[in-house]
Amino acid sequence: MSDNALLIMNAGSSSIKFAVFHSREEEAEWRGQVEGLGGSSPVLTVKARGSDKPTSHSLADADHEAAIKALLGWLEDNVGHSALKAAGHRVVHGGQQYAEPVRIDEKVLDTLETFSDLAPLHQPHNLSPIRQLMRLRPELPQVACFDTAFHRDQPWIAQQFALPREWTEKGVLRYGFHGLSYDGISRQLRQAYPSLAAGRVVVAHLGNGASLCGMRDGKSQATSMGFTALDGLPMGQRCGALDPGVVLWLIQQQGLSAEEVQEMLYKHSGLLGVSGISHDMRDLIQSASPAAKEAMALFAYRTAREIGSLVTALGGIDGLVFTAGIGEHCPEIRRAIVEQLSWLGFELDKEANQGNAEYLSRPETLPILVLPTDEESVIARNTRKLLALG
Ligand SMILES: Nc1ncnc2c1ncn2[C@@H]1O[C@H](COP(=O)(O)OP(=O)(O)O)[C@@H](O)[C@H]1O
Ligand SMILES: CC(=O)OP(=O)(O)O
Ligand SMILES: [Mg+2]
Fold first, then answer.
1. pLDDT-based confidence at 63, cuts 50/70/90?
2. Is the dihedral of CA 97, 108, 205, 378 positive or negative?
3. Do 346 and 279 lie in a common domain?
4. Residue 252's domain spans which residues?
5. Is residue 140 part of a domain?
6. Which of 225, 231, 240, 333 has the most CB within a 10 Å radius?
7. Are residue 36 and residue 100 in the same domain, yes or no?
8. Record-annotated residues binding substrate (predicted)?
9. Residues 195 and 106 occupy one common structural domain
10. How far does residue 374's CA lie from ligand 1's centre (Å)?
11. What ipTM goes with this model?
12. CA 208 to centroid of ligand 2, rounded, Å
């Protein structure tokens, strides 16, 4: 691949996805991921364009750093670090400073590191490959694309907490996340469903991290995540919206340290905490345990309730879109959510839902779609644009 390769990295909470593009082409040359991080047997799978046979490599360790090492090793063996012309990275938190993609230098990287405490499951793993590539290829142009950026133009009222003004002014705001995913969905809607895209749409990004975005005319109006990616829906291991009084009580009355509370809320709550079995929806669906069913029911109930809140923010709703791991592949959860939204005029076509079809609703009811998230293509587009790559 001469010296025209564009590397895209997307570290999520349970997976690292990557893609290699020829710098002028829309379709990725290679796509791969390490899934199951934090589990027992993570595997690096890579697929070349046009092939339906991925290659798989088992990894000895299940953490993000081992996955990044394996991935950079694969890249050197199959593409060559010297063939890279640029790299684009998902960076989860851009704070108040970054509402657009930015070219990374030492100073930018230092600023982004200061946001690591606001996204402990993501930011360090977003920044680690940037540092490693800086060492391997100091002159390589690298671009950071932010999960928070898509939401920065929301109405001001949607970005505020009801805290003393001085804290709002210091940047304690509802930033929102999964913005690269929402940006890509907004674009897909504009291309394939233009009249719906112009209206009021709730997009449900339900993966290991989960959030909702209410869009009008393709732009974010409100979202379920806040200052950090803990807020909103229950997730694989994260609690979602929680009375802040619980945090105070755990620290002041139960004697937990701030670090212990952080560990509980980020890593031992959500589907894993309620089920006691797994953070992965696939395991809960297989399980006969009542606690697994309760975790699934709570996930669907909270999601439906939060959708109701976004419908109010949008002043009504014209359509609903599901995306990400659970949203794209889990009919049971989509059914449980949509059943609680029948009062809004949503009704699933059972067969379409069971088959994970793109268009899921019955005739004469409001549209429900499943669209695949593709954060890597959004990052590639942003990186090319910023660096003016042909
Ligand atoms: N076939 C499936 N059925 C149910 N849930 C699924 C399926 N495939 C993936 N998932 C869920 O999606 C999650 C991963 O979503 P993804 O968006 O890829 O994760 P990340 O948040 O790490 O980017 C898994 O933890 C699992 O809960
Ligand atoms: C922000 C976030 O939760 O991302 P992910 O779903 O990739 O973990
Ligand atoms: Mg993700």
1. confident
2. positive
3. yes
4. 179-370
5. yes
6. 225
7. yes
8. 90
9. no
10. 14
11. 0.98
12. 7
